[in-house]
Amino acid sequence: MNPNGISLLHEFLQEETDKENRNIIVLQIKKYSIQNNKEED
Questions:
Q1: What is the pLDDT of residue 1?
Q2: What is the pLDDT of residue 11?
Q3: Cα separations (Å) of 33 from 2, 7, 9?
Q4: Distance CA 4, CA 15 (A)
Q5: SS3 labels along 13-33
Q6: How far apart are CA 15 and CA 31, in angstroms?
Q7: Whole-number pLDDT of residue 4
Q8: In a 3-state reduction of DSSP, which class is residue 37?
Q9: From residue 13, how far is each of 20, 22, 27 by CA, in Å?
Q10: How far apart are alpha carbons 27 and 9 in whole angstroms?
């Protein structure tokens, strides 16, 4: 593999990781707010 290909692959993987992390954070926020709503009832 040429260095250019490796850096492109690295960028792609980094973007995928960022997406995964965002999804996890969103899920945690939803779960957290659902728990808070239950406590208020």
A1: 58
A2: 94
A3: 47, 39, 36
A4: 17
A5: HHHHHHHHHHHHHHHHHHHHH
A6: 24
A7: 82
A8: helix
A9: 10, 14, 21
A10: 27
State the sign of the Cα–Cα–Cα–Cα dihedral 13, 15, 18, 22: negative
- Per-residue pLDDT tens over the stretch 1-41: 577 888 999 999 999 999 999 999 999 999 999 888 887 65
**C-alpha span between 31 and 21 (Å, rounded):** 15
- pLDDT of 15 reads 96
As given in the structure block, the two tokens for residue 32 are 């957290």
Q: How far is residue 16's CA from residue 23's CA, in Å, rounded to a whole number?
A: 11
